[in-house]
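User: My advisor, Dr. K., asked me to get a structural model of this assembly before our group meeting. I'm new to this, so sorry if the format is off. These are the inputs:
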Amino acid sequence: MSNNKRIDQPTGTETVGHEWDGIEELNTPLPRWWLWTFYATIIFSIGYCIVFPFWPTANGAPGGTSGWSSRDELQKTLDARAEELQPVHTALATTAIGKLEAQPELMQQAIAGGAAAFKVHCVQCHGSGASGSKGYPNLNDDDWLWGGDLATIEKTIIDGIRQPNHPETRFSQMPAFGRDGILSAAQIEDVTSFVRHIAGQEGASAASQRGQALYEANCAVCHGPAGKGDRTQGAPNLTDAIWLYGGDRETIKHTITNSRYGVMPAWGERLDKATIRMLAAYVHSLGGGEAAPTPQPVEAADANGGDNVGG
Amino acid sequence: MSEANPDITDSPLGQYQKRKSVFPKAVDGTFRRLKWAIMIVTLAIYYITPWIRWDRGPYAPDQAVLVDIANRRFFMFDIEIWPHEFYFVAGLLVMAGIGLFLVTSAVGRAWCGYACPQTVWTDLFQHVERFIDGDRNAQIRLQNASWGPKKIARRLFKWGVWLFIAFWTGGAWIMYFADAPTLTVDFWTGQAAPVAYMTVFVLTMTTFIFGGFMREQVCIYMCPWPRIQTAMMDEKSLLVTYKHWRGEPRGSLKQAQAHPGTIGDCIDCNQCVAVCPTGIDIREGPQIGCITCALCIDACDKVMAQVDRPRGLIDYITSEDAEQEQAGKPATPVLKTLFRPRTIAYFMIWAGIGLALLFALGSRTRLDISAQHDRNPLFVRMSDGSVRNAYTVKLRNMESRPRTVTVTMDGAPDASMWLSDSSRDKAARSFTADLTPDAVTKLRLFVVTPTGDGSRQEFALTVQGNDDAEPSDTHELVLERGGQ
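Assistant: The format is fine. Below is the predicted structure of the whole assembly, which you can bring to the meeting.
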């Protein structure tokens, strides 16, 4: 084909010698230096392959002569970030939780750090939105079993709930009234009616009146005569709209019959002080956080992170 | 076709050939002076703009034109553009594009010939070249001379001056992206960002190489614009045209005297080729290498004046007029050529976008509210049975001054709200917030409703500056009132 070159008459230009359905191409040669730039890019690419890793193998790409690796790059970025955050960690580890609110900037950093730590350690039970599920408390609301101020939340996180071999742990135990034979099935029905009555879920009835006597004898010692609960021993408020396991008749009956035994790890054994403070700050910020009840016990707790508060 | 043409078996044309050097000759004339003027204006705009100061108060930079990439702001005199208003910049780019279509369909490749940076800097570099090496003939002599100390000195001096200009070109570019006086000091004291030095280096090298060495190669082989323009020209677009019907057959003055009436006006002096910055011969007809700089018109007019023939053997003329002139008919009136459906349509689109941008600029608000409903959890039931929703509210204060604003709630009459740094007992139907200048203030808002019947209700948040007469912006939201 390439020997079919001819001179195109109207332009006086040579053709390249190809012909497709009568269409020919005029030869307008490219300046040769363009070709040299093309060769230069090829030579550059050879050098590039020597300097940087380029050929994947089962064990990753062998490093180029520069030793560059994306993993190292990532590690450097992470290290630099960790170094950048070090002052915040130190400040949080040495600032008592009661004094955190006086430092809004540190508080904001703690909340941001807590949000990240929450996603690693807490979402498995409390959910990614901290809204919990049956048996796992919703941390967004204003109902707290043990208290919702910063120091109390921190203490709950440090010592956990019902941790064996951990003397400081939060521990509340309701008897299994039905399983252990303390109350009969009919009595449990009556107590359930009473609980649902004081929670505003059903009206007064003969059953609820019978249940009231049983409640006063068996339940009021922890849940209080009016059913308002007691935070010092982790007894839930039975009159509010929030139920950890559910407020319907069957669930309440099940709770009274078998009791419940939710647990949370004692995070003090697993996480550093700063991380726990950040988690406490984050949980406190979700919308249900309370102010410290009285300044005195919080001040006393400052020196060692408030571990004698709320217990 | 089927047999090889014996004439070209040893063709000089291969697939590649040596680049033909171009040594354009200095020329003077109307179009050369126009090119001078445009070069001075465009270079002045480029170098001076970043140094114009513009007072915007203590909370905004005082540089008239500033592309503040670090802070995501674009300042242009009294206009400040935020990232979400980038459509203004996009609109300007569309206007620039359509403006180019308009110019091309009206007067051909005027952009290429006069205003394109490649043309302007190449022209500037060629003036430097003439200043140092002399005009065309001296340049050719020096090119062909062997490399001796004299030639090396000349070349180094020329390249030095080019590099100097190229460096200032790159240096001026970065001034658009940071406060020019501060950056200048930082640059020379080694404190500027690495990207500043890299940008200056890259632009210095591209200016040096494109303006000093590649020149017409950029126009002919690299730039897509000549190809696009070919599609946009029509028979009423201005072209630099050699009037072959007047010039051919070419012949010297002697030949013309010897054979009166048989020789055309072109005396074949080759001046049009000598002055051409892209090294083409316009007498071969319209071609992609012609950037319509019209220097050949200047050169030819001068020769025509010397030989006492009418000017305009090479001239700006539309191909329609060219045909009419050959047929001996009068040319179409200029206005009729200029105002035709295509140019009018381009102009209407161009002006329409411009007016729309101006209208948008005049009616835009400088205080915005937007809010996002928390999705996880969508709502929270409180101990008293009420239902709380949480929102992330962003208040955008686009003015360069601190502002106090009030946000009020419309709809959901039984609901009330409070900010995360307040508490529920202070819940109300409105709140005030202090906004930092020229920034977005992010707030976390809780809205509580006593009704927990599972319905959803629409409400809106409206923001008003405390010193404004009217609300600026409203954002509509949904309030979830419990799911069970």
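One thing worth pointing out at the meeting: Chain B touches chain A at residues 1-5, 7-8, 11, 13-20, 217, 221, 374-377, 380-385, 388, 390, 420, 424, 446, 452 (CB under 8 Å).

User: Perfect, thanks a lot.
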